[in-house]
Amino acid sequence: MQEDSKDIDIIKEDETPLEELKNVDIITANEDDSNAINIIKLEEVHREHIKKFTCLNENEEFEGFKSKKIRKFKRYSREIDKFFQEEALVEQSKFLNTTHLFFVDCKLVGFISLCADSIRLNIDERNNEEVPYLNIPAIKIARLAIDAEYQRQGYGKLLMNFAVKTAFELRNSLGVKFLTVDCYEHRKKYYEEVFGFKENGVQRENRQPDSPLSLRLNIDEYLSNLDI
């Protein structure tokens, strides 16, 4: 694989009905282009766009979970909405993370927030990943959400590809080995089976059972599984 990110198109055709996305570069100039997919950094001018956004799908089925946990999961979705609408711009202004909006045909479909991170691996993980250090540099997916109207259509995969491409391009300036995400248990299977994330052996000290789990994705392994 060449180390020139300009030669890499990591937008992979999905199994879901998204034929119109094939061979489309998702990183374009602005959301004003009709019939286009655009990812744009969040700015003040987007406040009106994000007011109506919600990732809470009232019809989502949480198979295998009891009603008490389902209520918690829905609360988590409301917290994501609150972050997006009230906190994302503030945190971005303080350089805590950067949020990007995902538009399809000028409609806000989702968003992703990224920040710098590092993770600690145990001895077995370091051997398996072939890394010599205890703490490994990473990019963290602080938030990733798709509007309820557009869920289960493959858009989450495009945002993940954007995160991977961002991390890959950063390698021209600094070391990045993994993508990380703090994931609640009802999303864990999705991240593991769809993208190949692995649960970290070292979790946050005093972590509660219903707190998020730290997962990691080896960027090189992910890229090697794409048809590029």
Automatic annotation (TrEMBL):
Coiled coil: none annotated. GO terms for molecular function: acyltransferase activity, transferring groups other than amino-acyl groups. The keyword Endoplasmic reticulum does not apply. It catalyses: glycyl-tRNA(Gly) + acetyl-CoA = N-acetylglycyl-tRNA(Gly) + CoA + H(+). Residues 68-220 form the N-acetyltransferase domain. CDD domains: NAT_SF. Pfam families: Acetyltransf_1. InterPro entries: Acyl_CoA_acyltransferase, GNAT_dom. SUPFAM superfamilies: Acyl-CoA N-acyltransferases (Nat). Keywords: Acyltransferase, Repressor, Toxin-antitoxin system, Transferase. It comes from the Bacteria. Signal peptide: none annotated. This is GNAT family N-acetyltransferase. It comes from Clostridium perfringens.
